[in-house]
Structure formats: C-alpha cells, structure tokens
Design a protein that fits this description.
- The chain is mainly beta and 82 residues long.
- The chain has one domain.
- The chain contains no helices and nine strands.
- The strands form two sheets. It has a five-stranded mixed sheet with strand order 5-4-3-7-9, with no helix packed on it. The chain has a four-stranded mixed sheet with strand order 1-2-6-8, with no helix packed on it.
- A hairpin with a 2-residue loop joins strand 3 and strand 4.
Length: 82
C-alpha cells in the first residue's frame, strides 16, 4: 500500500495533516515548519500546519528525526529515533 495523505482545514481553527506510512522502511523528518515523509514509493512534504499526525501502520522500520517548530507533531504507532 502506498503512503497516504489526509488534510483538514478549519476556518479560524486547527489545520491538520495526517500522514500514513507505506510498506517497507519509512523516514519522518521534522525541520522548521516542514515535515517530510519518505517512503519506498513516494515523498510527501507538508508545511504550515497547526498539527501533523504521522501514522505507522504498514512500515517495517519507521524512523523519525528532528523537532516540530510552531506546530504539534504526534507519531502514532511504532516510530524509532534515527
């Protein structure tokens, strides 16, 4: 299954990006106001969101590195520090 992206924007509310991993090794990198999800089949970059949720559902070894600046970053599932 390829990675997936779900975006939600609420006027005068919280804008949320939900990232879903793909099968295989995935890498989530938070740098400044951007989050990049690299998968075996694609790369997704999101920026300027109030909240980013990263879901580990299909990957075999998912890693995360960096820090969120100006937004909330939550990893759901088994992510390990790179």
């Amino acid at each position: 299954m390829p990675s997936q992206l779900d975006l939600t924007g609420i006027p005068h509310g919280t804008n949320t990006s939900n990232l879903y991993d793909a099968a295989g090794a995935n890498s989530l990198v938070a740098k400044g106001n951007k989050v990049t999800l690299r998968t075996p089949v694609s790369t997704i970059v999101v920026s300027h969101f109030d909240a980013v949720n990263a879901y580990q559902q299909n990957g075999s070894s998912d890693t995360t590195e960096g820090a969120a600046v100006g937004y909330s970053l939550q990893t759901i599932g088994h992510w390990t520090s790179a």
